[in-house]
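Q: I'm writing up a methods section and want to include an example of the input and output format. Could you take the sequence below and give the corresponding predicted structure tokens, formatted cleanly so I can copy it straight into the document?
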Amino acid sequence: MNDTTQKRATVYFDPALHRALRLKAAETDSSISELVNDAVKASLAEDAADFEAFAAREQEPDYSFEDVVKDLKRRGKI
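A: Here is the clean output for your methods example:
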């Protein structure tokens, strides 16, 4: 992790989370920075997948909650 393109940041963890993170780093022979970077990448990848799903469904009709509830009542479902 001595790459000069890396940026430094101060992050404050809940003590219990920090302890778990230190233990996981030791167990996996990784650094805390590597674990945090991997977690952030996974979170951002999930966001990207969500945005793709939203875009794919953009043309679907939009119903209000009120309309859905009224339709359920009209059809005897509630």
